[in-house]
Q: What sequence folds into this?
């Protein structure tokens, strides 16, 4: 179902991939629920479907669903992985899923999809490939770096591009961490461990 007036703020909607993660369903099932009007949605001018977050919460209550990945997220490191290569994407996502560390990873295959869901996910860490069709990693990171909402987000790029090739494309914003492909999962383990340790200090520091 298409609603005539989209929600007022980006936090009020998400894309089909994130809706599927929140409800523990497939993207195809989410699309079916939209067609059945069990979830409220509309399409952008570019044809991308956006799902109403209030309707997702209503669906969870109606079906007595347990905690979603959003519940208790202050105690977990929120990671958004944007990678169009399915092998690399699955490897990193599976690593996060198997890890005993408090990491919640949402994986997407396109930069445009990530931009749609950024406000809903509010990731602590963005892991992005650079070479992707459409909105690539360069454009994704530079767009987010210009947004005050994501100034404190850690950005890690993973790429097979050389330093010269990256420089020729305009380089990366200051503070961006680079990791050459193929990815090293031992390095990822240390990377997440350090981030989680640092994040654990923040509550007392703020207080």
A:
């Amino acid at each position: 179902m298409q609603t005539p007036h989209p929600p007022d703020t980006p936090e009020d909607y998400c894309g089909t991939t994130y809706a599927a993660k929140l409800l523990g369903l497939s993207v195809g099932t989410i699309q079916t629920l939209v067609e059945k009007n069990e979830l409220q949605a509309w399409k952008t001018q570019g044809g991308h479907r956006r799902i109403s977050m209030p309707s997702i919460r209503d669906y969870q209550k109606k079906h007595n669903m347990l905690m979603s990945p959003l519940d208790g997220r202050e105690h977990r490191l929120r990671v958004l992985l944007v990678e169009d290569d399915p092998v690399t994407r699955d490897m990193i996502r599976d690593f996060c899923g198997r890890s005993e560390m408090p990491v919640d990873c949402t994986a997407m295959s396109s930069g445009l999809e990530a931009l749609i869901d950024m406000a809903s996910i509010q990731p602590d860490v963005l892991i992005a490939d650079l070479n992707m069709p459409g909105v690539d990693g360069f454009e994704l990171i530079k767009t987010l770096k210009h947004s005050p909402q994501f100034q404190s987000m850690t950005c890690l790029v993973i790429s097979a591009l050389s330093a010269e090739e990256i420089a020729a494309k305009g380089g990366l914003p200051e503070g961006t961490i680079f990791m050459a492909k193929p990815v090293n999962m031992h390095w990822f383990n240390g990377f997440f461990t350090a981030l989680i340790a640092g994040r654990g200090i923040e509550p007392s520091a703020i207080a």
